[in-house]
Amino acid sequence: MLGVARDADEKTIKDAFRLLALKYHPDRNKAPDATDRFREIAEAYAVLSDPEKRAEYDARGHSGVTGLSADDLFGGIDFGDIFGGLGFDFGTGGPFGRMFRRRGPARGENIEVALEATLERIFHGGEETVQITHPAVCQACGGSGAKLGTKPRTCPKCGGGGQIVRSQHTQGVSLQQVTTCPDCGGRGAIIDSPCPECGGAGTVSCEETLKVRIPVGVEDGTVLRVAGHGLPSEKPGAPPGDLFVVIRAATDPRFERRGSDPYRTETIDVVDAVLGARIDVPLLDGRQNVDVPAGAQPDAILRLVGKGLPSFGGGPPATSMCDFRFTCRSGSPTANVDCSNS
Question: Is the pTM of this model over 0.85?
Answer without folding.
Answer: no
